[in-house]
């Protein structure tokens, strides 16, 4: 094995994702105002690192998603999108970028979706313990009146009518708040100590910024429901599979990092 090949490898992380590293890498850099650009090995386009996912190779040359962007070794960067991951797998672009045969897990995109959802839950738990998040219709409405709410999360399996009413209230009272409907009620409630939650508000600050990064990446893997109302909303990634396919034959070392 050559020295250069060995440097590309990394110790495999827990496949569920490194929840303990939510303060590091991509999220920490974005929260501190540092968001360097990386080149996607599929589209060949440069995008902010916070909108992408880094991959490394473990000692057995298995592709591993490095969601916190902290693992050692040469990184391969892809836009945070299920279509992009599946295109890279189908066109064997991980092999081309790594310049050798690699193993791509069959459930790579699904595993990333699960891990991103867990990272969002971890950050919600941190926000609750820091007094930066509340859940429940009445508490959220009160915060919209009195607090600088930066993020409004609604359960994706909640009542469409109820979520629309809350979205309209947020548009009028906290137009700056991004609205996200990517976690289901059980996923929202669990980190907040509830069996289920339909509405969660997060106060402006570092935790809200980090949650915005992670929900934006999760949006590339989970399509949010259609909730009416004006104001910024976290939606699926702007690059579709068609645009990602352009130039894919030239995947290579420029995306490393």
Automatic annotation (TrEMBL):
<dbReference type="Pfam" id="PF04296">
    <property type="entry name" value="YlxR"/>
</dbReference>
<dbReference type="InterPro" id="IPR035931">
    <property type="entry name" value="YlxR-like_sf"/>
</dbReference>
<protein>
    <recommendedName>
        <fullName>YlxR domain-containing protein</fullName>
    </recommendedName>
</protein>
<feature type="region of interest" description="Disordered">
    <location>
        <begin position="1"/>
        <end position="36"/>
    </location>
</feature>
<feature type="region of interest" description="Disordered">
    <location>
        <begin position="222"/>
        <end position="257"/>
    </location>
</feature>
<feature type="compositionally biased region" description="Low complexity">
    <location>
        <begin position="236"/>
        <end position="257"/>
    </location>
</feature>
<feature type="compositionally biased region" description="Polar residues">
    <location>
        <begin position="1"/>
        <end position="10"/>
    </location>
</feature>
<feature type="domain" description="YlxR">
    <location>
        <begin position="38"/>
        <end position="112"/>
    </location>
</feature>
<dbReference type="InterPro" id="IPR029064">
    <property type="entry name" value="Ribosomal_eL30-like_sf"/>
</dbReference>
<dbReference type="InterPro" id="IPR007393">
    <property type="entry name" value="YlxR_dom"/>
</dbReference>
<dbReference type="InterPro" id="IPR037465">
    <property type="entry name" value="YlxR"/>
</dbReference>
């Amino acid at each position: 094995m050559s020295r250069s090949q060995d440097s590309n490898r990394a110790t495999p992380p827990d496949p569920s994702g490194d929840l303990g590293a939510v303060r590091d890498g991509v999220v920490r850099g974005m929260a501190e105002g540092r968001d360097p650009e990386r080149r996607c090995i599929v589209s060949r386009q440069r995008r902010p690192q916070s909108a992408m996912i880094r991959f490394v190779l473990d000692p057995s040359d298995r592709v591993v998603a490095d969601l916190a962007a902290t693992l050692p070794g040469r990184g391969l960067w892809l836009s945070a999108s299920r279509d992009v991951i599946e295109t890279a797998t189908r066109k064997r672009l991980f092999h081309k970028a790594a310049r050798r045969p690699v193993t791509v897990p069959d459930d790579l995109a699904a595993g990333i979706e699960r891990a991103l959802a867990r990272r969002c839950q971890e950050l919600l738990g941190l926000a609750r313990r820091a007094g930066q998040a509340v859940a429940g219709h009445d508490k959220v409405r009160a915060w919209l009146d009195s607090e600088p709410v930066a993020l409004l999360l609604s359960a994706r399996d909640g009542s469409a009518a109820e979520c629309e009413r809350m979205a309209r209230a947020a548009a009028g009272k906290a137009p700056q708040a991004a609205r996200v409907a990517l976690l289901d009620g059980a996923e929202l409630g669990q980190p907040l100590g509830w069996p289920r939650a339909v509405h969660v508000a997060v106060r402006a600050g570092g935790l809200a910024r980090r949650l915005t990064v992670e929900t934006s990446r999760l949006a590339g893997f989970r399509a949010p429901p259609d909730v009416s109302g004006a104001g910024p909303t976290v939606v699926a990634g702007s690059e579709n599979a068609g645009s990602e396919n352009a130039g894919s034959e030239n995947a290579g070392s420029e995306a490393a990092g």
